[in-house]
Amino acid sequence: MAAVPERDAATGQPTGRRSGDAGFSLVEIIVALSVFAVLAVACASIAIDSLGVAGDNRERVRAANLASAEVERTRAQFRVSPANVSETPLVTPTAVDGLNYTVTRRATWLDNSGLDAPVGGGPSYTAATGNALRVEVQVSWPGLGERPPVISTTVLS
Hints:
It is a single chain. The chain is of the alpha+beta class. The protein has one helix and six strands. The strands form two sheets. A four-stranded antiparallel beta sheet has the order 3-4-5-6, covered by helices on one side. A two-stranded antiparallel ribbon has the order 1-2. It is rod-shaped.
């Protein structure tokens, strides 16, 4: 059944509004806009946080790739001759897409007991004597803050 149009009391002419078509009040519009504003701010906050996490993940992936490349370089040196790998820490600054990374490699000979061998004047350990070389690569970059650097560790024998 169709709604009956309202009539002006004085003239009896239709007012142009149908009964039940009164529209929204100002209070209803303000409440609706407030709810929309709260939802928009929440969505914007989530989007901004997501962009920050994505940027951090991109930097961590680059750092992990640099660490992996350094481990592979060390593995190649070790295969040619174990004496090629020095226990002196090797620090290499590397720039990737305008961001400066610091790659630090530390190598330590391990004796048969699994304990770290003395650095410097201790006995000369090699893969031929059944010992292994522990290699740790740490990659850091500016803006890392309180987050831990990327660390990759392996044992070569």
